[in-house]
Each structure stands twice: as structure tokens, then as C-alpha cells.
């Protein structure tokens, strides 16, 4: 199963209008992935009538030599959630990729943004 990639969008250091964000339709069959630079934020928009859980999968953490916990984000119906940033040593799979697993995808959209560092 090849995960569906979410393109990371760059946000200027001092913000950007939300209407400029491009959203990806959720795919619970294949799940998702994105390239993580340690400044990435996951945005979740749930247009469904029920809560949906999105899981950001953790990996071995070089700081503690333990398994990093995965993060479950429960987005209630008709609401939005934001999560991150995701430390690279705790969440990056091989190739700097973060995996996202979904419980459902009906009326669910995802976006990933990375904030440009201040000069």
C-alpha cells in the first residue's frame, strides 16, 4: 500500500490567510505521509457529522531510546484541529517522512504547513 502524499505548504514567518491553504481529501484506505522538517504543522478539517481520529505515527526516539508515542487527534464533527510541530527524531520514518493513519475519511481534509523561520 502506497501512502497518499500531502504536499507541504510554506507559510511566511508571520502568518498567512487560511483561505490560501490547499486541502487534500483524506484517504483512509491508503493513509497519508508528508516530508517533515521539524517545523511542520498538520491541519485537519472534519466536515462529517461524527468525530474522526487522525494518528500521527511515532518512531524510535534517539533522545530516550524508547518508542515515541503516536499522537491521536480526535477532531469533533464540523470542527478543525491542528497538531505539531513534529520533532524529526520522534516522528520521521526513513527519508524524513511522517506517517498519518486515519479511522475514516468521509468529509475529512488534511493540510500540512511549514513555517518559514524568522530572519
Describe the 3D structure.
By secondary structure, the chain is mainly β. It has one domain (4-115). Helix content is 3%, strand content 44%. It is built from one helix and twelve strands, in the order ββββββββββαββ. The protein has a five-stranded mixed beta sheet with strand order 1-4-11-6-9, with no helix packed on it. Strands 2, 3, 5, 10 and 12 form a five-stranded mixed beta sheet that branches. β7 and β8 (66-67) form a beta hairpin. The longest helix has 4 residues, at 88-91. The radius of gyration is 14 Å and the shape is globular. It starts with a strand and ends with a strand. The mean pLDDT is 88.
What's the SSE blueprint?
Blueprint: E1 4-5, E2 8-11, E3 24-25, E4 32-35, E5 40-46, E6 52-56, E7 60-61, E8 66-67, E9 71-75, E10 79-83, H1 88-91, E11 97-102, E12 108-115
Parallel strand pairs: 1-4, 2-12
Antiparallel strand pairs: 3-12, 4-11, 5-10, 5-12, 6-9, 6-11, 7-8
Total DSSP helices? 1
Question: How do the SSEs run, as a string of H and E?
Answer: EEEEEEEEEEHEE
Task: State the helicity in percent bands.
Answer: under 10%
The domain count comes to: 1
Q: What overall form do the CA principal axes indicate?
A: globular
Report a brief summary of the structure:
The chain is mainly β. It is built from 1 helix and 12 strands, in the order ββββββββββαββ.
